[in-house]
Write a structure and sequence with these properties.
Number of helices: 4
Radius of gyration: 29 Å
Shape: elongated
CATH architecture of the largest domain: 3-Layer(aba) Sandwich
Oligomer: single chain
Helix content: under 10%
Number of strands: 30
CATH topology of the largest domain: Collagenase (Catalytic Domain)
Strand content: 35-45%
């Protein structure tokens, strides 16, 4: 985990026709999301009859078409030397008051904002083009009989690559070579670099978060922040857990460890941190409470490149207690089936002690609990004869709710899936698991139960459709 801030300049050197670059390189920084506005309104037309605007917009469109990044065109003129938070391009006889180098065709100026996790993100990117250079617009070889000037479009392609966060290449064919040459279109290497930055692939294993208790460890073999966020120099290990919210909710987290210098983070679906805690007030522990809007998120268990506290280390076991309080039922992860067949079903559930005003997963023994679930049935199963299943897992014991409303031990009927309801399936099935359950009245003072919900078809009694992430109930004094 690190924080830094910097400003970086890039240049494109002129007139060199020869070997190009490969093995795409990134500057170590990227935009928080793969889409930005770009202001383009330049005066003038090339000797070929093509306007500078047309050539630059064509370069933007090529990045849009070939990569996951998206430039949104704004046909207005903005000063690229102004620190205004707007991304723009224009010709100038100087680089914001300084002289261009004799071989410099254009300069891309990137400014950054610090990030909690990984390298700083790009916040503004402007391109200044040397108006004293002889430009034209054409395809093909850089030097051609009867054509004067350097192709402006390939210069724009190159500089826009820097805007994305790509650095110069030095070993094989790429538009991002440090010297202008015969390449006039994006190459596979350029596209691969943009894919790495903005393709959406998560380069670390991701587990679905089950609210309750998580026991795991950060070790030398774990994924590193530098793998999760390409270009970052942060080598600290990290574990990822995904979760989704369909209604506003407050998540409360506690990360405890006897040895690990704990860091808790919550990030959005673009891996931008929305909340974190790296101030362990009690030994090597960390805690975090955050209100979140509906959406997809990651819980990140992290540490530091080097220990902050003498008594803590950067590897070791940890335990996370995760509690969720919301105003509605919450999704239970991705859907699956016993046979691995694909299913387009949705599962959500919640536990309340105040008649549905709010839902959470941790309660005292004296609370009166209602547990409900909802299944959005796969459309291809609407109207078919089917059944609903409710299961509770306590340690190694699996209990099924039967049609009489009683939980029975699955060990009494090995291999049999006990049905809670037999019925014709509708688009949405609502299930009541328990009503007005007071754990203390049953002699329960401390317990953790994982609930699962599913459905099947009478025509395929051995198949069951259910969710990956359990609904966890924690009873604690």
């Amino acid at each position: 985990m690190r924080r830094t801030k910097k400003i970086l300049l890039f240049t494109l050197l002129s007139i060199f026709v020869g070997s190009q670059s490969h093995a795409f390189k990134i500057s170590g920084n990227k935009w928080a999301i793969g889409e930005i506005e770009y202001f383009v309104d330049m005066d003038g037309t090339a000797a070929s009859g093509i306007t500078w605007n047309t050539a630059f917009i064509a370069a933007m469109n090529e990045w849009n078409a070939e990569t996951p990044f998206n430039f949104i065109l704004r046909e207005e003129n903005r000063n690229p030397c102004a620190n205004d938070g707007l991304n723009s391009v224009d010709f100038s006889d100087s680089f914001c008051g300084s002289e261009f180098g004799s071989s410099t065709l254009a300069v891309t100026v990137l400014s950054y904002k610090s990030a909690i996790l990984g390298a700083p993100t790009i916040r503004e990117a402007d391109i200044i083009i040397d108006q004293n250079k002889d430009f034209n617009v054409y395809d093909g070889r850089l030097v051609q009989f009867g054509i004067q000037g350097l192709d402006f479009r390939r210069v724009a392609l190159h500089e826009l690559g820097h805007v994305l966060g790509l650095d110069h290449e030095t070993s094989n064919a790429a538009i991002m070579a440090p010297n202008i040459g015969n390449l006039d279109r994006l190459q596979a290497d350029d596209i691969a670099g943009a894919e790495l930055l903005y393709g959406g692939a998560i380069n670390c294993a991701v587990a679905e978060l089950a609210f309750g208790s998580i026991t795991n460890a950060l070790e030398d073999t774990d994924c590193r922040v530098s793998e999760l966020l390409p270009g970052s120099s942060d080598s600290s290990p990290i574990d990822l857990y995904s979760f989704a919210l369909t209604s506003p909710a407050t998540i409360s987290l506690g990360m405890t460890s006897s040895t690990l210098d704990s860091v808790l983070l919550i990030a959005d679906e673009n891996l931008q941190v929305v909340a974190f805690d790296d101030k362990s007030s009690n030994e090597c522990d960390s805690s975090l409470t955050q209100f979140l809007q509906p959406g997809s998120y990651f819980l990140l268990a992290n540490t530091f490149d080097s220990p902050v506290k003498d008594e803590c280390d950067i590897s070791g076991d940890y335990k996370i207690n995760a509690a969720l309080s919301s105003v509605g039922l919450n999704p239970l992860g991705s859907s699956t089936s016993l046979t691995g067949a694909a299913v387009n079903a949705g599962f959500s559930a919640g536990i309340t002690s105040n008649n549905g005003v709010s839902f959470t997963n941790q309660f005292p023994p004296s609370a009166s609990l209602d547990i409900t679930a909802q299944i959005d049935i796969d459309p291809q199963h609407f109207g078919q004869a089917g059944f609903l299943v409710i299961a509770a897992v306590i340690d190694e014991q699996i209990l099924f709710l039967n049609e009489a409303g009683q939980f029975i031990d699955s060990a009494a009927n090995p291999g049999v899936i006990t049905r809670a309801v037999n019925k014709t399936l509708t688009a949405t099935e609502e299930l009541t698991v328990v009503e007005n359950l007071i754990p203390a009245s049953l002699g329960i003072s401390e317990m953790q139960v994982s609930f699962f919900f599913g459905y099947g078809l009478i025509s395929s009694p051995g198949q069951l459709y259910y969710h990956q992430t359990p609904l966890k109930l924690i009873i604690a004094p």
